[in-house]
Amino acid sequence: MGTATSSLHDLKKNEHLKHFVGKEPITPNDPFWNQLLSFSIRPPRSKEEFSYLDESLQPLLETLLTNNAISGNFGALVSVFLTRALELKASAQCDNNIFTWQTYNALFIIRCIVKYFIVTVTEDNVVKQFQAPSSGDTKHDDLLESLVNALVEIVVDVPLVDFTYALHVEAVNTILVLLSVQMFSSIPAAKSPIYKSILQGKCSIHALLFTKSLLQNFVRQDKCPNSYHHSESGGSIIIGLASGLWNVLTLGYGKEQDEESTRLKETVLAQQSLLLLLVLVNHCTNDKAICNPYKKALFSFVNSQDSGGSVEAIPSFKLDYGKLYDTLCVTLNNDQTTLLLYLLMHRNSNFKTYVLSRSNIELLIVPILKILYDAPEKTSHHIYMSLIVVLILSEDDLFNEAVHDITLKNISWYTERSLSEISLGGLLILVVIRTIHFNMTRMRDKYLHTNCLAALANMSNHFKNLHPYVCQRFVSLFETLSKRLAKVMDQIRNNPDLKPTDEDFSTDLLQDLSILEEVLRMILEIINSCLCTQLQSNPNLLYSLLYKRQVFDPFRMHPNFQDVVQNLDTVLSYFSSRLDSPEKNLSVAEVMESIKEAALHWPTDRLKKFPDLKFRYVEESQPEEFFIPYIWTIVYKCSGIPWSQQNLILFNPNKDL
């Protein structure tokens, strides 16, 4: 390889690589390493070339896997990298581009080798490859732990400038590759030697700074320097391969749009840092034997702009909440950013308080609503996490009040109807109603509609001046589901003697009946809650209820609905009597005026009191069962690192979660 430019087709014939993977030991201070690491390569320009790269490396890596126990050359390469890593900070400050270039060439080779080992052999055997005796005194007792520590220190200590950008990306990617052992092993992370070295090893003393650095990388959204995507003469393999990697692979998860793919490609370090942060904080979360310092750091960091003198019980770091909030608002259209927002809202109480105090909360809410609106194009997990964020926000009464005081104009992505002006609260209700309808007809996920209804229930006491279209859609949802309930009940009545072969059919019908009754009951309770507290503020809702009052007739005598329908009947009877007039064909405007006038004289004590509707989000007792496969699916599809499907057992890579 040397200093000459190589092509992908030359790799398996390259004498330096053949020497490296052979049986002959190479000492860490051998001049060979300078020759091996002083190379450039024409980057892959197509999927075919990228596949060819893997094919070209395959026989070399197979040979290394066999010979490393004898030669120890992999350990020697790691030792060479570790020696150089110690000098990186000084070389970056001195603008020593050549030294930095050779160092991340070494790191790129290490990552390729480690990825192959992890995909091909068990974790114990991966660790043994690090432990294979190498020629010469390396002065590194535990190469794996030393490597991890060096990678963390690169991210924490090495200045981030144009010529170190690729090195930072490679350090993050290499840690991701090491942690990817979870995709190929049934052993829990708490018992993984690699995870233990990261969570409990020497590098864990940097947990606060490392977590802060990863989060800062995400917040800053630094664009890649031109050299990262456009390899020049004398450039490195990592620059070249990154070009092919980020131009060829499909970025985004769940059919992201071109604009989003472009942004991800321009901010590689930010995206990779976010993925690594999510991996770190979601493993070993419930194991008492292992403390996860990265999780604690993320859940307890405070606002650097807060002048208050509060003292945290857990030592943490400071970060500008305002900049983090702004970044979340403009990047909140993929799984990984939504998941970060969920973690912060659920577990970092200081950040949650900050978000709820924002006067521009619409900048955060509208992107979440667009995710829900685009549900057919999103993964079920992405929809679910977005809804959980809405539910967490709806637990706050001030939020529920504020959203109805914020006016939005021209919501272009809402295409069912032109919305020239609507309150944020109205749009929120509208999109959640649409999500319930989508779920009931397509996904049929009980947890999804439960969380939708819980959010609406939390907000119902504060519904105010709802848009006519919102009210129509709300009543229309009830009407649609009531028709479906009637149909299911007819099917059950018409099949009194179901045969044993129809057991599944019978079970499905009974499940449908139970779910429909539950949803309809909750919708009635939400309407009741609104009427009990905000009747005078919702003439459009009263109009829609009066216009469709016959929809509620079948529920008056139904034992599961009778009590909650009673209040609705009282309201409808009162306003109907006020609308009775010898004059026929009242206009909509005249009816609305009559409703508003009658509302002024409404006796508030006429309705039966029900307990306030209050729901809180509670995480599952074993959250890792949900989050670990989800996070690694995101990493697999969005990191740009081409993992083989061979031996992958954590999830089905051909199926969206």
UniProtKB/TrEMBL annotation:
Which InterPro entries does the UniProt record give?
Dymeclin
Q: Which GO terms describe its biological process?
A: Golgi organization
Q: Which keywords label this protein?
A: Lipoprotein, Myristate
This entry carries the following GO cellular component terms, namely:
Golgi apparatus
The organism sits in which domain of life? Eukaryota
Coiled-coil parts of chain: none
Q: Which family does it belong to?
A: Belongs to the dymeclin family.
Q: Which PANTHER family would you find in this protein's record?
A: DYMECLIN
Q: Tell me the protein's name.
A: Dymeclin
Organism listed in the record: Ixodes ricinus
